[in-house]
Write a structure and sequence with these properties.
With 215 residues, the chain is α/β, with parallel strands linked by helices. The protein is built from six helices and nine strands; from the N terminus they run ααββαβαβαββαβββ. The radius of gyration is 16 Å and the shape is globular. The structure holds S-adenosyl-L-homocysteine.
Protein backbone atom coordinates (compact mmCIF):
# COMPACT_ATOMS: atom_id res chain seq x y z
CA UNK A 1 0.00 0.00 0.00
CA UNK A 2 1.33 3.45 -0.91
CA UNK A 3 1.07 6.45 1.40
CA UNK A 4 1.76 9.33 -0.98
CA UNK A 5 1.18 12.08 1.60
CA UNK A 6 3.50 10.69 4.25
CA UNK A 7 6.51 12.59 2.92
CA UNK A 8 6.00 15.58 5.19
CA UNK A 9 9.70 16.32 5.50
CA UNK A 10 9.56 17.65 1.93
CA UNK A 11 8.01 20.90 3.13
CA UNK A 12 8.50 21.78 6.80
CA UNK A 13 6.46 24.98 6.50
CA UNK A 14 3.28 23.19 5.35
CA UNK A 15 3.82 20.47 7.92
CA UNK A 16 4.04 23.15 10.62
CA UNK A 17 0.78 24.75 9.43
CA UNK A 18 -0.96 21.38 9.60
CA UNK A 19 0.41 20.69 13.04
CA UNK A 20 -1.00 24.07 14.22
CA UNK A 21 -4.31 23.37 12.50
CA UNK A 22 -4.63 20.05 14.33
CA UNK A 23 -3.64 21.47 17.72
CA UNK A 24 -5.62 24.72 17.65
CA UNK A 25 -8.71 23.89 15.60
CA UNK A 26 -9.16 20.22 16.32
CA UNK A 27 -7.54 18.81 19.43
CA UNK A 28 -8.37 22.01 21.37
CA UNK A 29 -12.05 21.43 20.56
CA UNK A 30 -12.09 17.93 21.96
CA UNK A 31 -11.12 15.56 19.14
CA UNK A 32 -8.82 12.92 20.64
CA UNK A 33 -8.79 10.00 18.17
CA UNK A 34 -5.09 9.74 17.29
CA UNK A 35 -5.90 7.92 14.06
CA UNK A 36 -7.78 11.03 12.89
CA UNK A 37 -5.28 13.56 14.26
CA UNK A 38 -2.32 11.75 12.66
CA UNK A 39 -4.09 11.50 9.31
CA UNK A 40 -4.95 15.20 9.32
CA UNK A 41 -1.37 16.11 10.15
CA UNK A 42 -0.27 14.20 7.03
CA UNK A 43 -2.77 15.17 4.33
CA UNK A 44 -1.70 18.41 2.54
CA UNK A 45 -5.02 20.30 2.49
CA UNK A 46 -3.62 22.96 0.15
CA UNK A 47 -3.35 20.34 -2.64
CA UNK A 48 -7.15 20.05 -2.68
CA UNK A 49 -7.83 23.76 -3.00
CA UNK A 50 -7.78 26.07 -6.07
CA UNK A 51 -4.54 28.07 -6.42
CA UNK A 52 -6.23 31.36 -5.47
CA UNK A 53 -7.08 30.09 -1.98
CA UNK A 54 -3.92 28.15 -1.16
CA UNK A 55 -2.60 30.76 1.25
CA UNK A 56 -5.67 30.22 3.43
CA UNK A 57 -5.71 26.43 3.07
CA UNK A 58 -5.15 25.83 6.79
CA UNK A 59 -7.61 28.38 8.14
CA UNK A 60 -10.62 27.47 10.26
CA UNK A 61 -13.41 27.29 7.70
CA UNK A 62 -14.81 25.76 4.51
CA UNK A 63 -13.45 26.92 1.12
CA UNK A 64 -14.81 26.89 -2.47
CA UNK A 65 -13.52 24.09 -4.75
CA UNK A 66 -15.39 25.06 -7.94
CA UNK A 67 -18.64 23.71 -9.43
CA UNK A 68 -20.47 25.53 -6.58
CA UNK A 69 -19.12 22.99 -4.09
CA UNK A 70 -16.98 23.44 -0.98
CA UNK A 71 -14.30 21.59 0.95
CA UNK A 72 -15.48 21.22 4.55
CA UNK A 73 -13.95 23.04 7.50
CA UNK A 74 -11.05 20.96 8.93
CA UNK A 75 -12.85 20.64 12.29
CA UNK A 76 -15.94 19.21 10.53
CA UNK A 77 -13.78 16.62 8.75
CA UNK A 78 -12.28 15.68 12.12
CA UNK A 79 -15.64 15.41 13.91
CA UNK A 80 -17.14 13.26 11.17
CA UNK A 81 -14.06 11.02 10.88
CA UNK A 82 -13.95 10.45 14.64
CA UNK A 83 -17.69 9.81 14.80
CA UNK A 84 -17.24 6.82 12.46
CA UNK A 85 -15.43 5.05 15.36
CA UNK A 86 -13.40 2.90 13.00
CA UNK A 87 -10.06 1.12 13.09
CA UNK A 88 -7.49 0.66 10.34
CA UNK A 89 -8.47 -2.06 7.89
CA UNK A 90 -12.21 -1.40 8.13
CA UNK A 91 -14.39 -0.58 5.14
CA UNK A 92 -16.18 2.75 4.76
CA UNK A 93 -18.51 4.33 2.22
CA UNK A 94 -18.19 8.06 1.57
CA UNK A 95 -20.89 9.98 -0.31
CA UNK A 96 -19.71 13.27 -1.88
CA UNK A 97 -16.03 12.94 -2.80
CA UNK A 98 -15.81 16.65 -3.64
CA UNK A 99 -12.17 17.73 -3.51
CA UNK A 100 -11.16 14.33 -2.14
CA UNK A 101 -9.78 15.82 1.09
CA UNK A 102 -12.04 13.84 3.41
CA UNK A 103 -11.37 10.77 1.24
CA UNK A 104 -7.62 11.21 1.72
CA UNK A 105 -8.01 11.56 5.48
CA UNK A 106 -9.99 8.31 5.60
CA UNK A 107 -7.39 6.58 3.41
CA UNK A 108 -4.55 7.81 5.64
CA UNK A 109 -6.48 6.35 8.60
CA UNK A 110 -5.84 3.00 6.92
CA UNK A 111 -9.44 2.43 5.86
CA UNK A 112 -10.68 0.77 2.69
CA UNK A 113 -12.60 3.69 1.18
CA UNK A 114 -15.45 3.51 -1.34
CA UNK A 115 -16.27 7.05 -2.47
CA UNK A 116 -18.99 8.36 -4.79
CA UNK A 117 -19.24 11.80 -6.43
CA UNK A 118 -22.03 12.91 -8.75
CA UNK A 119 -20.13 15.74 -10.55
CA UNK A 120 -17.84 14.23 -13.22
CA UNK A 121 -15.17 16.94 -13.08
CA UNK A 122 -14.77 16.70 -9.30
CA UNK A 123 -14.74 12.89 -9.43
CA UNK A 124 -12.05 12.90 -12.14
CA UNK A 125 -9.84 15.46 -10.38
CA UNK A 126 -10.04 13.65 -7.04
CA UNK A 127 -9.29 10.29 -8.62
CA UNK A 128 -6.22 11.71 -10.33
CA UNK A 129 -4.94 13.48 -7.23
CA UNK A 130 -5.38 10.35 -5.11
CA UNK A 131 -4.27 7.81 -7.71
CA UNK A 132 -1.37 6.67 -5.51
CA UNK A 133 -3.76 5.13 -2.97
CA UNK A 134 -4.62 1.49 -3.48
CA UNK A 135 -7.19 1.60 -0.67
CA UNK A 136 -9.55 4.06 -2.39
CA UNK A 137 -12.26 2.99 -4.85
CA UNK A 138 -13.84 5.77 -6.91
CA UNK A 139 -17.23 5.94 -8.56
CA UNK A 140 -18.93 8.78 -10.41
CA UNK A 141 -22.68 8.58 -10.01
CA UNK A 142 -25.63 9.07 -7.71
CA UNK A 143 -24.58 8.28 -4.17
CA UNK A 144 -28.18 7.90 -3.04
CA UNK A 145 -28.00 4.29 -4.23
CA UNK A 146 -24.95 3.58 -2.07
CA UNK A 147 -22.55 0.87 -3.29
CA UNK A 148 -24.47 -2.40 -2.89
CA UNK A 149 -21.74 -4.68 -4.32
CA UNK A 150 -19.26 -3.55 -1.65
CA UNK A 151 -21.70 -3.57 1.30
CA UNK A 152 -21.86 -4.06 4.24
CA UNK A 153 -19.72 -1.12 5.43
CA UNK A 154 -18.26 -0.60 8.91
CA UNK A 155 -19.04 3.08 8.51
CA UNK A 156 -20.88 5.43 6.14
CA UNK A 157 -20.06 9.14 5.95
CA UNK A 158 -22.22 11.49 3.91
CA UNK A 159 -20.97 15.00 3.11
CA UNK A 160 -24.09 16.35 1.39
CA UNK A 161 -27.43 16.68 3.16
CA UNK A 162 -30.57 14.68 2.31
CA UNK A 163 -33.98 15.76 3.70
CA UNK A 164 -34.24 12.49 5.63
CA UNK A 165 -31.99 9.46 6.21
CA UNK A 166 -32.01 7.26 3.06
CA UNK A 167 -33.01 3.68 3.90
CA UNK A 168 -30.32 2.42 1.50
CA UNK A 169 -27.58 3.55 3.89
CA UNK A 170 -29.16 1.68 6.79
CA UNK A 171 -29.31 -1.47 4.64
CA UNK A 172 -25.67 -1.15 3.56
CA UNK A 173 -24.33 -0.52 7.07
CA UNK A 174 -22.95 -3.45 9.11
CA UNK A 175 -24.40 -4.18 12.56
CA UNK A 176 -22.42 -2.04 15.02
CA UNK A 177 -21.32 0.31 12.23
CA UNK A 178 -21.82 4.08 12.35
CA UNK A 179 -23.63 6.38 9.94
CA UNK A 180 -22.50 10.02 10.03
CA UNK A 181 -24.83 12.25 8.05
CA UNK A 182 -26.11 15.84 7.86
CA UNK A 183 -29.90 15.88 7.52
CA UNK A 184 -32.28 18.71 6.68
CA UNK A 185 -33.01 21.51 4.25
CA UNK A 186 -32.04 25.10 4.99
CA UNK A 187 -31.64 24.11 8.62
CA UNK A 188 -29.58 20.94 9.08
CA UNK A 189 -28.26 18.83 11.96
CA UNK A 190 -25.33 16.44 11.94
CA UNK A 191 -26.55 12.98 12.98
CA UNK A 192 -24.47 10.09 14.26
CA UNK A 193 -26.18 6.71 14.36
CA UNK A 194 -25.09 3.20 15.26
CA UNK A 195 -26.83 0.21 13.68
CA UNK A 196 -28.19 -1.97 16.49
CA UNK A 197 -28.38 -5.78 16.39
CA UNK A 198 -32.08 -5.62 15.45
CA UNK A 199 -31.16 -3.48 12.42
CA UNK A 200 -32.55 -0.22 13.80
CA UNK A 201 -30.58 3.02 14.17
CA UNK A 202 -29.62 4.37 17.58
CA UNK A 203 -28.21 7.81 18.18
CA UNK A 204 -29.14 11.36 17.40
CA UNK A 205 -28.13 14.82 16.37
CA UNK A 206 -24.90 16.52 17.45
CA UNK A 207 -25.15 20.15 16.28
CA UNK A 208 -26.32 22.42 13.48
CA UNK A 209 -24.41 22.26 10.20
CA UNK A 210 -24.57 23.66 6.66
CA UNK A 211 -23.83 21.24 3.80
CA UNK A 212 -24.80 21.35 0.14
CA UNK A 213 -27.93 19.28 -0.60
CA UNK A 214 -27.65 15.62 -1.61
CA UNK A 215 -29.09 15.89 -5.13
N1 LIG B 1 -16.02 15.88 1.46
C1 LIG B 1 -15.80 16.88 0.45
C2 LIG B 1 -16.82 17.96 0.50
C3 LIG B 1 -17.93 17.58 -0.32
S1 LIG B 1 -19.13 18.80 -0.70
C4 LIG B 1 -14.43 17.47 0.58
O1 LIG B 1 -13.72 17.15 1.54
O2 LIG B 1 -14.05 18.23 -0.30
C5 LIG B 1 -20.42 17.65 -1.11
C6 LIG B 1 -20.22 16.90 -2.37
O3 LIG B 1 -21.33 16.01 -2.50
C7 LIG B 1 -20.20 17.76 -3.62
O4 LIG B 1 -19.01 17.52 -4.33
C8 LIG B 1 -21.44 17.30 -4.40
O5 LIG B 1 -21.25 17.31 -5.79
C9 LIG B 1 -21.61 15.89 -3.88
N2 LIG B 1 -22.96 15.32 -4.04
C10 LIG B 1 -24.15 15.93 -3.90
N3 LIG B 1 -25.15 15.06 -4.15
C11 LIG B 1 -24.57 13.86 -4.44
C12 LIG B 1 -25.07 12.57 -4.79
N4 LIG B 1 -26.38 12.30 -4.90
N5 LIG B 1 -24.17 11.57 -5.02
C13 LIG B 1 -22.85 11.80 -4.93
N6 LIG B 1 -22.32 13.00 -4.61
C14 LIG B 1 -23.16 14.02 -4.36
Amino acid sequence: MKWPFSRDEDNPSDARKRHMMVEQQIRARGISDELVLDAMRRVPRHEFIPATFQDVAYTDGPLPIGNDQTISQPYMVAVMSEALQVEAGMKVLEIGTGSGYQTAVLAEMGLEVFTIEVIQKLADDAEELLSGYENIHFRCGDGRQGWPEAAPFDGIIVTAAPKSVPEVYVEQLAIGGHLVIPVGGFSQQLYVFEKATDGSLEGGSRFGVRFVPLV
